[in-house]
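Regression test case RT-17, inverse folding.

Input:
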């Protein structure tokens, strides 16, 4: 179980997160929703220890989250890959770093789940499409069976059809692998379709935290209602409206 308590972060001398609390259980998906600059990437950075927090705690089953080897999927699909290396080298990096033995057939099974031709692993990052690079980044994030995966706007570089398809592939793999997923997004349609719970982050504070179903049925805050109305106007919530 992930537990973030009273997380306070300053950047450039300014408070960016003002005491954020959240929890996330294995196998569950938490969508962290908020506009640009709300502090979503800072939250992920602070959880991973890439950004220093001023106070507060981030634990997994009561211990330091970092000792549980959380995985990160970045917004820019090719950012996870060294352009000079084969995709196989980069994908296998978490396995090599931890000196793990992969179960037989693991790469093949994950590639099948992500609808990736394993032959792509012999290419370089610029020799695959952006959608393939995104799914290869997810492969890299999942290869070492992490208990929790942090996704920072993982679908925003993709076209709408590829977004939907990739989101379904992630959801199917999550059911098989059982990882907890924290997904930073400003796509309410994605959150409505895939999240169990939502947290609305605004100016570094949690404006609203709720089960996804109850949030999309009836947000409790004015800001939550405005977000839902905007998404409805865009047609992003057709499935549940
Ligand atoms: N390296 C940095 N130095 C100083 N301020 C930063 C840095 N990175 C982000 N910020 C500031 O922190 C706030 C939150 O940014 P960020 O976490 O990237 O938001 P989001 O991911 O929600 O768009 C913004 O005001 C941004 O300008
Ligand atoms: Mg961000």
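Golden output:
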């Amino acid at each position: 179980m992930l537990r973030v308590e009273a997380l306070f972060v300053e950047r450039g001398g300014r408070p960016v997160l003002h005491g954020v609390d959240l929890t996330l259980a294995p196998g569950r998906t938490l969508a962290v929703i908020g506009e640009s600059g709300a502090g979503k990437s800072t939250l992920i950075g602070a959880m991973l220890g890439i950004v220093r927090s001023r106070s507060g705690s981030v634990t997994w089953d009561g211990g330091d989250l970092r000792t549980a080897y959380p995985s990160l999927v970045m917004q820019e699909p090719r950012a996870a890959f060294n352009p000079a290396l084969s995709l196989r080298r980069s994908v296998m990096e978490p396995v090599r770093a931890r000196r793990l033995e992969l179960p037989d057939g693991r790469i093949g099974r994950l590639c099948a789940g992500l609808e990736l031709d394993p032959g792509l692993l012999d290419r370089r990052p610029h020799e695959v499409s952006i959608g393939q690079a995104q799914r290869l980044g997810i492969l890299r994030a999942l290869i070492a069976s992490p208990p929790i995966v942090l996704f920072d706007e993982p679908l925003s570089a993709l076209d709408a059809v590829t977004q939907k398809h990739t989101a379904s592939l992630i959801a199917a793999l999550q059911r098989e692998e059982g990882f907890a997923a924290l997904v930073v997004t400003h796509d309410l349609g994605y959150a409505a379709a895939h999240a169990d719970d939502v947290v609305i982050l605004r100016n570094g504070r949690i404006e609203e935290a709720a089960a996804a179903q109850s949030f999309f049925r009836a947000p409790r805050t004015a800001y939550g209602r405005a977000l839902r109305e905007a998404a409805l106007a865009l047609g992003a919530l057709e499935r549940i409206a």
